[in-house]
Write a structure and sequence with these properties.
Elements lengths: L6 E7 L9 H7 L11 E7 L2 H14 L2 E3 L18 H23 L1 H7 L3 E4 L4 E2 L5 E2 L1 E4 L3 E4 L5 H4 L3 H23 L5 H5 L32 H13 L3 H34 L3 H16 L11
Parallel strand pairs: 3-4, 4-8
Antiparallel strand pairs: 1-2, 5-6, 7-8
Helix pairs in contact: 2-3, 3-4, 3-10, 6-8, 8-9
Amino acid sequence: MNIYSLKKIRCKSWIAGLILTGWAGLLASCSEEELSKESVITIDQVDYTPFDYWLERNYVAPYNIEFKYRYEDNESDMDYYVIPARYEAAIKLAHIVKYMCLESYDEVGGIEFTRAYFPKLIFAMGEWEYENNGTFILGTAEGGRKIFLAGTNYVEQYAKDADELNRYYLKTIHHEFTHIMNQTVNYSADFQLITGSGYVADKWSEPPYNDNYLPRGYITAYAQHSHEEDFAEMLSTYVCNSEQRWQRWLEMAGTEGARLIMAKFDIVNAYMIDNFGIDLVTLRTVVQRRQQDITMGRIDLDDLTK
């Protein structure tokens, strides 16, 4: 369906039950003239909500991005128990994503960059996707076209806390967007060689890997999963945290750990500058300013008039 449409179309079909024993006689007795010319399919038009019209103005028109918040089987992962996003929570999350992510990239790289590279579908679900190892999935990226965001129904309790907002939503978006950029333009193989023997896949959440990862040259525990996740964790962690916090992590990493982390950062930053014209230091400054606007309540997350 065209995402510019302001109506959704839902089709309902009714299939009459046929008695098997009379099927042959029915076929024999029916002629073309006796068949009804009225369709058994009816079309219902469902009016969009004020939020849908807001999304049309703020996502579709400027970016050609569809923000889905209604439950859809084909967009969900059937391996997990999921629930839909609440209407009010989805409104808040859509405002946050627009102000802190889309418009941050607009400000640094230009709206043409955001239009060209940001995925054309954001799908928000209400609950996290829980794994058997005690962790849960915050979001995923699919094929360069879709970002899936979980935990939408918790956004209201985290919207005033920068650390929680980053942990559960914003870092996830920057992380998944990094994967999408990597699918468009690959990064240097030199990156994966810096700590090439240290990746541990799914063991990253288990002892001893879930602790003391900084001295081993990883900015987060999850960065130990693979070089692809390491790259995305470097970018997303950097832009979502202040310079003071970044420097504190480098101190905790020690001389060798800090050297490894900064070697990775240099490659990530060069990748963004060379391929997309975006300097991560500038992007972080913009993200941090906009983050403060959100947490200080300067942005009305419920306004659907603009």
